[in-house]
Amino acid sequence: MSHPAESVEVLVIGGGVIGSSIAYHVARQGRSVLVVDRCEVAQEPAASWASAGGVTPDWGQDPAEAALASAAIERWPTLADELETDLQYRQGGHLLLAENAAEAERLQALVQRQHELGFADVCFVDRQDVFSLVPGLGEQVVAGSFSPSDGQANPALTTSAFANAAKRHGAVYWTSAECLALDRIADRVVGALTGRGIVQAKQVVLAAGAWSGAVASSIGLELPLRVRVLQALLSTPAQPGLLQPVVGAVSRALSLKQVQDGAFLLGGGWLGDLSPDRRSYTLRPEGQRGNWTTACELFPPLRLQRLERAWGGLQAQTIDDYPFIGSVSELEGLALAFGSWYGFALAPAIGRSLANHLAGLPTPELDHLSPSRIAQFAPAHVAAFLAESATVDAL
Q1: Could you give the dihedral angle defined by the CA atoms of residues 302, 306, 309 and 315, in that order, rounded to the nearest 10 degrees?
Q2: Which of 305, 319, 367, 371 sits between 20 and 30 A of 226, alpha carbons compared?
Q3: Domains of the chain with CATH codes
């Protein structure tokens, strides 16, 4: 069925946790906003559905996303009240483990770096304190770093909560309405062609995650972006309260947390394989075994459980592993918002910052994440990145 052209101030392509947070913050400013998504909100295999739900970013490596992290961590404890929905948020902290003296030294340096970035509550903990925080850890653990302000939440609930709050403020959602192409006139993006018709917009935000590259290429914008499949595992339920913080390890691919019903959720960067149509995936049996074995070695009580479910999510990976957030300098009317490894944790801050950016307000926290840096990558470097399969485990 054909539909008449729709006209809005802001068109957001992608209704995941980032796109819906942007829509919510734009709508709160009193601007008209339409969100277009190829699926329903928080549906498999989108990253917002598949995320492990950690509000536990590791900010010791680079300051590029640190300002967003500070804003997000401050906001999470009251976000459920703001969005009027239980997000299953729990501020149990984040514990990063060292299994030998060399790793402990790395953790001490990491803690110092985090203090320099302004995360003063992060602390180095010795073996005795680590086991006080999490009884039952593997005997090889010698130390850790603990971030008490970090935590976890339910990704699907959070994504839906942002979407519903956006709607309460006037945002309109078109789901199961794929963006077929952006609409470009000269050096300006003026809207998009969707499965429900043409949309005209003063500003377009591309926040389609793993599908952003294909949408951008419809107007000749080739992004240094590829898609990777991130694996998540869920155990049978154990007694709730056995594991309070989210647990990771210095030299292991692991993110381990216990969710509300007592089950353990495992992630950490184990990859699956993208399907030929780039819309689905297959998981690797060896990856599932490796993820489970790693978690059991660091937290032996998990051995009393069994694997109940496994799934994957499609995530956009940028050439330098930092997100593209902000306006595209050579194309008026177009902004990007995707590619963060910590997108779920940062969503409250990204949404507010990009809404302010679209409104012309200062957003220094986005300076290091601007899409304008795309022009700085050598063509040969981009070609090699795109040709390399995104199949090497992330950690």
Answers
A1: 30
A2: 367
A3: 6-51+156-226+319-387 (3.50.50.60), 90-151+228-313 (3.30.9.10)
